Amino acid sequence: MFKLADLQGNILRGYTNKPHVRYLILEVVERSAARRWLADSVSGRNCVPQITSGDWGEKKPDTCFNIGLTYEGLRALGTPSASLKMFPNEFVEGMTARAVKLGDVGRSAPENWPAPFNEPKRVHLIATIYAEKVEQLDVVQERALTDVKAFKLLDTREGYNFPGDVVHFGYRDNITQPRFEGVPDSQRHPDRQPKAPLGTVLLGHPTNLEGLTWRVPQPAELGHNGTFNAFRVLKQDVTGFEKYLDQAASYLLEHPQRDELLPPGAEEKIGQGLSIEGLSRPAALREIVAANLCGRWRDGTPLALSADAPDPNADLTDFDYVGVGDARCPHGAHIRRCNPRGGQIVQRIANNSRRLVRRGVPYGPPYDPANPYDPAKPGDGDEPERGLLGNFIGASLGAQFEAMSCDWLNLGLQDPRITGSNDPISGTNDPDTSWFDLPLKSGGKIRLPGFPEFVSTRGGAYTFLPSLKAIRFLGSL
Amino acid sequence: MPSDEGLLDRFVDWVPTTLVFKCVASWTLVPYWARRTSVKSLPGGPPPSSRHGDNVQCMMNLIMPLKVKSPIGRAEAALAIAQSQDAIYAGLNNVGTVHFARFVIVGDNICMFSVYDGDFTNYIRDFIATIGEVFNEVVKLVEDGEKVTPCERNVEAFIQWIHERDLYQVPDTATDFLRDQEALNGDRAVSPVNDDLTLLPRKMVLQLRANKNVSLGSGYRAYPGFSVAQVRKQLGLGW
Questions:
Q1: Phi, psi (5° rounding) for residue A20?
Q2: A269, A320, A381, A419: most buried, per Cβ within 10 A?
Q3: What is the ipTM of this complex?
Q4: What is the rounded CA–CA span in Å between residue B227 and residue B96?
Q5: What is the pLDDT of residue A236?
Q6: CB nearest B118 (choices: A210, A215, A411)
Q7: What is the average per-residue pLDDT within B188-215?
Q8: List of chain B residues whose C-beta atoms are within 8 Å of the C-beta of residue A101
Q9: Contact B227 A413 (CB under 8 A)
């Protein structure tokens, strides 16, 4: 069994009241000092920020602090080779070696990643600070870097949760996470998905694939109750996304089946759902395209529950892709590709087996639709980079994150109707070959062509999120 | 057109065709080269690719040396497959991404040749989840099989074990073969020197010393680019 107090808090908690997040990307300087730092971090001694555990007792901490170690980081700390050998291949090789599987090709290729991710072997530890205010981030960062012999700061990445949990493409995010067996469900959202076995997110527990267990690095205090994280810096081309919605709306306005997609007068209902008065027909078509690409209207309403218009009263989590839900949501929609729930898929045993805990925070300034970037406009300079700092947490990077990325997001293998297409939002798309099918009520479809890559990778690393016991173990090496 | 080749050139071209040279090269020259130029064994399976067409109808050529190298050992393997055949076929059907699979005994090896869609590790992991228990009985008859059984409890090690016994697939083009070698050595950029195709025969000899059995080329496909489920759907077989 496990105690919440032995887990790092960011695995099962979202820290929703701490919108400011800063990632410190660190390199071990001196092994002994780094070990001492880790030992001190468990209890917060000697100025080192205390690791936030999954059980913070009566009083919520003002700031939260968590760490993840890369394979190179474990090596730099002097982890015994017998233990290192027990870590899975994908973690040992690191994210850059798995680039093709993850769709990190072309401009997303690791060769094009900026520092510090252009030198993956130097990325040893990624510490994350969560706070209500930016000043608090500075204070914790200073404490974390007090001992210059322990770690060298290679760089930082910083994000901020926008009000209403909206992310850069304008969708509401952070809606749902897997619920786990044996873990109190504080949110208590109704959800038709079965509770995930604890082994989905923690090493040393039963997994969703019956009878299968993932290897736990030994000694048990190192591996047990640890998990893995795919940390990703994902740049979002918001201008390109909005332009594409315009382009798609123009295309659909001329399409012979446009009235089946948007019956005359239906734009008003969509406008009501999105609290937009006098929504024009092209604007409504833009929203229809945006909703279909994602599988949710931008307010979070799942298409599986409400395909005609956003519904503020719709449940955001209690839906499935069977029966009417199957027909309402495009088979290639982003959220359906990431998690097909109970819907029919080719890999019959894989339903619910590739689920991940997702913790994301936007970075860069919010996009202003009233004042979009225009390279031809004097003074606009370079468009500021914006995107998502994403964490995809699961007990097996190979069976969950990579399996989802490779076969589902980038190949569409789970459904013959989408095989050969990439995820419309996060996939490695090329306007010459990309396609996406909008379902029609008659059973037909309208194929949208010509969309570019909206999301590109700008860095990342596979990290191991050790339990508190494991951090003590590493500190005592 | 008159030949520019001199007597010496013709002699040099002729020498490798002689039996004496081939024997000397096999027993002396190749081992000497191999000692001077360390060549690692190239990994099995198709090379990673982001092209959709390369990620369906992938081929696995699994060669597993039997522990008992005799007709008795081969009969044990044949019997193990025969006893589990229905369960294995039903399991492969449930994996959902397998076009074809067959078991073959070649020499003292039990071989599984299959054509599958998507990522190799996902294929093997799903295979373990559906018929791992049955397949354990086959793997137990194979050299080092006991180290990875039961496969349900040794998932990562089993996948690696299968990967190591899957044949290296020599690419269709020489430059891709040279790039495979460089990738294995961790070279990120291909230098012009290493693209020297005149070195190809030597490199191929050394590689085939390291990878004794290989699959040649990416193979013929009558309907390339289609997944199992796409074919089944088109034929009305359900998927």
A1: -90, 130
A2: A419
A3: 0.93
A4: 10
A5: 97
A6: A411
A7: 77
A8: 48, 119
A9: yes
Examine the pLDDT at B189 and tell me if it is beyond 60.
no
pLDDT tens-digit profile of A461-472?
A: 999 999 999 999
B150 cis-preceded (ω within 30 degrees of 0): yes
> Is B227 in Cβ contact with A399 (below 8 Å)?
no
Query: Residues 6 or more apart from A42 whose CB is under 8 A from it?
Result: A50, A51, A468, A471, A472, A475
Contact A411, B55 (CB under 8 A): yes
pLDDT band at A376 (very low <50, low <70, confident <90, very high): confident
Residue A145 has phi, psi (to 5 degrees) of -105, 15
pLDDT in tens, B116-172: 999 999 999 999 999 998 999 999 999 999 999 999 999 999 999 999 999 999 998
Please give the domain boundaries of chain B with CATH numbers for all domains: 1-36 (no CATH), 53-184+193-239 (3.30.70.100)
How far does B128 lie from chain A, in Å, by closest CA?
8
The pLDDT confidence band at residue A187, using thresholds 50, 70 and 90, is low
In A, minimum Cα distance to B124 occurs at A399
Out of A88, A215, A403, name the one closest to residue B122 (CB).
Answer: A403
CA B100 – CA B84 distance, rounded (Å): 17
Q: Chain centroid to CA B194: how far?
A: 24
Nearest CA to A421 out of A407, A411, A413 is that of: A411
Kindly indicate the confidence band of residue A375, based on its pLDDT and cuts at 50, 70 and 90: confident
- Contacts of residue B130, Cβ cutoff 8 Å, sequence gap at least 6: A349, B91, B92, B94, B95
Give contacts of B 120-179 with A, CB under 8 A. 121-122, 125-126, 128-130, 132-133, 152-157, 159-160
Alpha-carbon torsion B142, B144, B149, B155, what sign?
negative
**Identity of the residue in A348, A349, A411 whose CB atom sits nearest the CB atom of B52:** A411
